UniProtKB/TrEMBL annotation:
Enzyme Commission number, as recorded: 1.14.13.196
Organism lineage: Eukaryota, Fungi, Dikarya, Basidiomycota, Ustilaginomycotina
UniProt keyword annotations, A-Z: FAD, Flavoprotein, NADP, Oxidoreductase
InterPro entries: FAD/NAD-bd_sf (IPR036188), Lys/Orn_oxygenase (IPR025700)
Transmembrane parts of this sequence: none
Name of the molecule in the record: L-ornithine N(5)-monooxygenase [NAD(P)H]
Molecular-function annotations in GO: oxidoreductase activity
Cofactor(s), by name: FAD
GO biological process, one term: intracellular iron ion homeostasis
Amino acid sequence: MGERVYDLVGIGFGPANLALCIALHESEEAKMKNFSMLFLEKQSQFAWHPSLLLPGAQLQVSPIKDLATMRDPTSSFSFLNFLHTQGRLTQYINREEKVPSRREWSAYLAWAAQRMDSYVQYGRVVTDIEPVERHGKVAFLKVLAKNLATGEQETVLARNVTTAVGGSANVPAVFREMYQWPPKNADEVSRVVHASTFLPQMERLDKVLQRIQLDERKEPLRLGVVGGGQSSAEMMCYLRDRFPEADLDMIVRASALVPSDDSPFVNSAAFDPESVTTFWESSARARRAQLDEFKRTNYSVIRNDLLSQVYEMVYDQEIDYHDPYMAPKGTVRVMASTTLLEAKQLDNGKIRVTTATTAGDKVVRTDEYDALFLGTGFERAASTLPFVHTLAEHFPLLSAEGVRELRERELAEDDLIATSPNPDAARATARGITRDYRLVPSNPARWRHDAASAVSLHPAVLERIPQSRMGREGSRENSVASARRGDSGYSSSPMPSSPKRELGDVLHRPGAPANVYVFGCNEYTHGLSDSLMSMVAHRAGVVSASLLASTPMAADASAAEK
């Protein structure tokens, strides 16, 4: 085929693929190999969770865990260098705060993305990925995308594809028929709002709620928030400020709102780079136990400062004092140990919700709300990605049936690993994905490499992966020695001084395998940090090493073509 083939096409341009783009952009090896890459992003411009940029919202991770520092502390793409270039480094230090606002973090990510602008095409929705064969082997991948500006279908060819498109809204079954986003028509306004689309939905719903509030009916607005996590608490505070006279209910399954655990030992065990290797090397039972143990770091938990703010709302209304200069405020209730039974939208637009208590005597109650706000999280599974219809035939992890079969074989995983001469390859075969995030095909020989190379780590990649504390003999001593030497564990990658290369300047590399990498859907195999900012820089180092390990030098590629 005469069409150009990129060494990498990335689907989505959020923090995960942005960090990878930066790592490859800074790599001297990538420059020597003339590595080509292109990223396709659905949004018209870079934006990071714009729907939840609420006033006062803060980042929930250390700013040192940015796009580059954990991979290369000398990178010019660090958060500290962003502050320096913006003339705010001293002022930021003077804040004496551990974390920046989510608004400032968004500005940092947008600044980094703008510097990588030549590698991205915005306004592209990927619809499918098809393997392209030569001589009975998969040679590369055809990525099909719709150009939102023109409506035309576009095709891009790639040796490797990385997917990093984030999660989809997890909407409880009782609300699914009522939740509509995007709306089917311009006049449609959903009374059920998910945190992932909070601000754009509120832009429409706000007018409806204001109209109801100005109505001459006697009762105040009644709003419900479902969920006991950070997003729920942020929406709760926003609604309290926007509609102070409204009655607010927070419906929570747990017995109490709980703080997120960001203590140092827990952070180290759950989110340090070497924790991924420890998790990967653990049995299925041990991995499940660790996910349960450390859920308190990320799921249904609230930052301490915000938790105190919610408690203050509840506490303050108990004070029996009428302030003559303050407008009356609605009642705030936290309905703990409460589960949803059913919900129905009434003819007047209200939503009738039936709940039941799960602690003490069971109490079933029915309440009517003017609107419901869902802080119920996201679904993150590779099999639910909207563009893997064709690839699902080749990779078990991309189909619900394939995932079910992998889970059923899990019981035999430990025996398989114990008897295998290559434990890491055995783990990858059993789990459908490698340690360096490549999907394992059901028929590896068809993908232009043998079964062993399909699931094994290249030696160059192993150098980028910190050894687990419980792993190979001497790993702790080696890491301590490296720390004393000041060795970061990665090769130095200074910024290239030459002008940026044009996109797609390399033809297909002959003989190399086609790979599909998946980010953000691998909590079950790579740990809790997989979908979080904590790991993007480290993962970028691992994946860039994996990509470059299978990419020959430009001269070698030319010789092979001849």
